[in-house]
Amino acid sequence: MTTVPGFTRSAIATNGTELSVLHGGRGEPLVLLHGWPQTGDCWLPVLPALAESGHTIVVPDLRGIGRSALSDRGFEKDNQVEDLRGVLRALGLGPAAHVVGHDIGGMVAFSWARLHPGEVRGLALLDLAVPGLGLERAMDVARGGRWHFGFFMAPRVAELLIDGHEDEFFALWYAQLAGDANPLSPQEVSRYAEAYRSVERLRSSFGHYRTLLDDAEVNAAWAAAGNQLTMPVLAAGGELAAGDRLATSLRSAAPHVQSAVIAGSGHFLAEERPSEVVERLLAFLRGANAYNAGHERVVPPG
């Protein structure tokens, strides 16, 4: 089990499931949400610096992944927001928090900001495309999009084919999506593969993909109605991955979004360029706190 000085790991019952949550520090809540195929461990390279920034840091393994309980439902990103709001309540935190999300975790973070804008004091999205706001282009294989979306979304197929080949598949995945200097050792890749090993664990994790069309529908309808995010937003992409495409796709929904491109990084920003990610996040958090201090924001209880 991963241990971090000053942090505690808790199993928290929330919204009909149980999440494993690493938490520590003192101050305003800062929630870090991981992507696929990772766990909350992807934030370990940035935790020491962030822990000194005056925040209580909350790092869950998302629904159905890693140390969290297996699940066969509830993967809609809007529903997962309730998973996380329940975590904050259980820890005696919130409801207001800064939220940082990478990949799938960024999709959940976006839903949180859309559904409960008064609770999200700052929203940082790292290297993803948001369903309904740009993900469709990334999913369009005929126009150069990524092949894996349709593969992962097909019921039963992906888990049956990857089962027994987790180590080889994950090694290929990280090698393809990381930048030129893959920071993940074979031991680290194996640690992630172990968290997803077996048909049951793989199937549980693919639930995050199998709701993407539903996620896109609600996000697109929200944007089409002229809604916009009201909190400070940072959109960061790896130079060798999403780049500034995320920020561009969010302009209409978050007209004051800040764009950051992490030089030399592929998809796994926190592990590939931890120092740069910490620098960008801390600067963003300082700016978000200054913005919030100057704009009264009513946060409903609970």
UniProtKB/TrEMBL annotation:
Xref: SUPFAM superfamilies: alpha/beta-Hydrolases
Give the InterPro entries listed for this entry.
AB_hydrolase_1, AB_hydrolase_fold, Carboxylesterase_BioH, Epox_hydrolase-like
- Domain AB hydrolase-1 per the UniProt entry, residue ranges: 29-274
Source domain of life: Bacteria
Which molecular function term from Gene Ontology is one that the record holds? hydrolase activity
Keyword set, alphabetical order: Hydrolase
Database matches in PANTHER family: HYDROLASE ALPHA/BETA FOLD FAMILY, PIMELOYL-[ACYL-CARRIER PROTEIN] METHYL ESTER ESTERASE
What is the protein named?
Epoxide hydrolase
Organism source for this protein? Saccharothrix coeruleofusca
Q: What is the lineage of its organism?
A: Bacteria, Bacillati, Actinomycetota, Actinomycetes, Pseudonocardiales
